[in-house]
């Protein structure tokens, strides 16, 4: 028990102790660092938005409809949570790369080349982050009393109105929790990004990639950036709330495994 | 304005097949045990459940007819439903709950809120307009749910055990309230319940639903006088005695008094005595606090394993005795016997 606590706390304490507090401001405002932070913020928010737009309908289908192969579909959706992110990156490359299954046509028909662009970062982050949103929202939809939606229907509300005025507000807290988890996962994404989008400063070099590079050249900057990511993680914990985390224990368990990639 | 429906529906173990004809202004109470299909029948009428066979017609318009492929989704039916525990939207205030169904019906946001306010006022909750459902009592929630359903001016009003979630005192208050509001509504009304008191107190007509079939239908008096099944006899065939409570006594409207176990607040009450709690004797019995009346046997219904004896006297009662007891007492119409009810066997409800 004590050993486990020490094991968890010690590295974090080391990070805080070794943080160059005196010139933290300077370390975090160099052009390179600001670029990485800005790119990370933009990409992770875009990935979270994409996860919501695609993930909420998917969660609804998984929670509310019966179709053959639903269990398989659900397993596939959750697979990125346990898949090594680098494998996800390779898979994305094989699908959307210039000679990938879909990528070759994107290039030939529309002249769209995704790999090594900022869009590739967004796709990679969405790929690993969306399952967190889907599983959280699906759980909320499952535990939502269907009679609220039925009552709304008997009061003349069509399906879209029911969704907008009853379902979404009622699952709101879970949607926020799921989005926060997805955002945290997207922000920390490393393996899939470096594989699918590579490591090009200003275009695809997000904060985790910058930390990795800076560790060779400017240790203080790397530690300062790590501290920022730690602070964000603590913030997400506060937003999601320990109760939600306990309820979605499986989600967090998988998050710990996946984020290492 | 009439409801004419034949509901055929299979769902899991439930095999529902019942016909309903309800006239405007009439309140039909469907009473039956849990699992009989009461709620499913209401869900079919409101379009939340499709029917497999039969039809649902309201005012001559066909809402459902699976044979010709007609199905009207719930949002397009002129049907209002009050669910068992209200099912108010927890994220909306009482006012917004009532206004929910008024939007997009030619009344804009402001108009909807004004009409919702009028409805809350009618159910006596204007002061609670801004309160969330969690801040309301059980009775208040049901009142808001009723206002929410009625505000849309439905042609058919369905009430699914509207008082079941309330405690006994609130329930009798709400029963009065409900009766009052239902009386001012001129559409077709159907209420389902498993509570015989509620059925008798509210119904113009009772339909008994057991295992998906209507086993008996008639006025409350009919059904009580001639229960046709064990379930009806147990639940609807109870002795209901109206009177005025006074300490440990209930002064019955016929002049007799009834001793009860616990002192009661003064007021009009309904005393319920189960027929099995009425014992018959040839001579006046002695013993624990009990009510004893000399009565005359009015009728005897031999139903095999039990005999229902209708008694008239200072108190009109139905007794249910074993065939052995009936024969040893020589119970026959015209016979004089003593009817006895223990004080502890009387349940009393505020009327």
CATH overall fold name of the largest domain in chain B:
Rossmann fold
Helix content of chain B: 10-25%
Estimate the global geometry of chain B from the Cα principal axes.
globular
Number of strands of chain A: 0
The domain count of chain A comes to: 1
Strand order of the largest sheet of chain B: 7-8-9-3-10-11
**Count of discrete alpha- or pi-helical segments spanning 4 or more residues of chain B:** 9
Q: Regarding CATH, which class of chain A?
A: Mainly Alpha
In the predicted model, the low-confidence regions of chain B spanning at least 5 consecutive residues are none
Number of domains of chain B: 2
Assembly state of the chains shown: heterodimer
Q: How many helical elements of chain A?
A: 14
CATH-assigned homologous superfamily of the largest domain in chain B = P-loop containing nucleotide triphosphate hydrolases
Q: Count of DSSP E strands of chain B? A: 19
Helix/strand-derived category of chain B reads alpha+beta
Question: What percent of residues of chain A are in strands?
Answer: under 5%
Rg calc of chain A: 20 Å
Per CATH, which architecture of the largest domain in chain B? Answer: 3-Layer(aba) Sandwich
Short summary:
Chain A has 261 residues and is mainly α.
What does this structure look like?
The complex is a heterodimer of chains A (261) and B (351). By secondary structure, chain A is an all-alpha fold. Chain A has helices at 2-17, 24-28, 31-64, 70-82, 85-96, 103-110, 118-143, 146-154, 159-188, 191-196, 207-217, 219-240, 242-247, 249-259. Chain A has a single domain (25-259), classed as MetI-like (MetI-like fold). The relative contact order of chain A is 0.16. Chain B has 351 residues and is α+β, with helices and mostly antiparallel strands. In chain B, strands 7-8-9-3-10-11 form a six-stranded mixed β-sheet, sandwiched between helices. The interface between A and B is medium-sized, with 18 and 23 residues.
């Amino acid at each position: 028990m004590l050993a486990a606590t020490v094991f968890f706390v010690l590295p974090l304490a080391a990070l805080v102790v070794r943080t160059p507090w005196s010139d933290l401001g300077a370390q975090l405002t160099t052009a390179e660092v600001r670029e990485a932070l800005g790119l990370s913020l933009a990409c992770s928010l875009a990935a979270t938005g994409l996860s919501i737009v695609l993930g909420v309908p998917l969660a609804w289908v998984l929670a509310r409809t019966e179709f053959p192969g639903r269990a398989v579909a659900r397993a596939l959706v959750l697979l990125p949570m346990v898949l090594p992110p680098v494998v996800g990156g390779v898979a994305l490359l094989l699908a959307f790369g210039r000679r990938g299954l879909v990528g070759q046509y994107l290039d030939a028909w529309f002249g769209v080349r995704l790999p090594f662009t900022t869009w590739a970062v967004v796709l990679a982050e969405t790929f690993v982050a969306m399952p967190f949103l889907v599983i959280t929202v699906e759980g909320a939809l499952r535990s939502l009393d269907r009679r609220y939606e039925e009552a709304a229907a008997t009061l003349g509300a069509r399906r879209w109105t029911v969704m907008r005025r009853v379902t979404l507000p009622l699952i709101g807290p879970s949607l926020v929790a799921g989005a926060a988890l997805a955002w945290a996962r997207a922000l920390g994404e490393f393996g899939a990004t470096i594989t699918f989008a590579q490591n090009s400063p200003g275009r695809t070099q997000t904060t985790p990639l910058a930390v990795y590079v800076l560790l060779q050249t400017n240790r203080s900057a790397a530690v300062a950036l790590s501290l920022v990511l730690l602070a964000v993680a603590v913030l997400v914990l506060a937003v999601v709330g320990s109760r939600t985390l306990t309820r979605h224990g499986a989600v967090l368990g998988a998050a710990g495994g996946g984020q290492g990639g | 304005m009439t409801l004419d429906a034949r509901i055929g529906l299979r769902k899991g173990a439930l095999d529902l097949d019942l016909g309903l004809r309800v006239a405007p202004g009439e309140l039909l109470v469907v009473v039956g045990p849990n699992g009989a299909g009461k709620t499913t029948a209401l869900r079919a009428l409101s379009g939340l459940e499709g029917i497999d066979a039969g039809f649902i017609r309201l005012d001559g318009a066909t809402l459902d007819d699976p044979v010709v492929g007609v199905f009207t989704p719930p949002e397009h039916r002129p049907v209002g439903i009050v669910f068992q525990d209200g099912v108010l939207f927890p994220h909306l205030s009482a006012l917004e709950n009532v206004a929910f169904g008024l939007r997009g019906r030619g009344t804009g946001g402001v108009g909807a809120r004004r009409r919702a306010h009028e409805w809350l006022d009618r159910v006596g909750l204007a002061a609670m307009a801004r309160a969330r459902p969690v801040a309301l009592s059980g009775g208040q929630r049901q009142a808001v749910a009723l206002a929410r359903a009625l505000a849309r001016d439905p042609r058919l009003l369905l009430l699914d055990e509207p008082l079941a979630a309330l405690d006994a005192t609130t329930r009798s208050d709400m029963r009065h309230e409900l009766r009052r509001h239902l009386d001012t509504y001129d559409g077709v009304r159907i209420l389902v319940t498993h509570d015989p008191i509620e059925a008798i107190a509210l119904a113009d007509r009772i339909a008994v639903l057991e295992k998906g079939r209507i086993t008996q239908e008639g006025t409350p008096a009919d059904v009580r006088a001639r229960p046709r099944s064990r379930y009806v006899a147990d639940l609807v065939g109870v002795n209901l005695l109206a009177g005025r409570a006074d300490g440990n006594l209930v002064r019955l409207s016929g002049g007799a008094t009834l001793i009860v176990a616990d002192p009661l607040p003064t007021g009009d009450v309904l005393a319920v005595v189960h027929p099995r709690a009425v014992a018959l004797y040839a001579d006046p019995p002695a013993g624990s606090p009990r009510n004893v009346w000399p009565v005359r046997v009015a009728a005897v219904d031999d139903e095999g394993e039990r005999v229902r004896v209708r008694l008239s006297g200072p108190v009109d009662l139905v007794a249910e005795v074993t065939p052995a007891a009936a024969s040893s007492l020589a119970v026959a119409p015209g016979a004089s016997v003593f009817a006895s009810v223990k004080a502890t066997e009387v349940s009393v409800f505020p009327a």
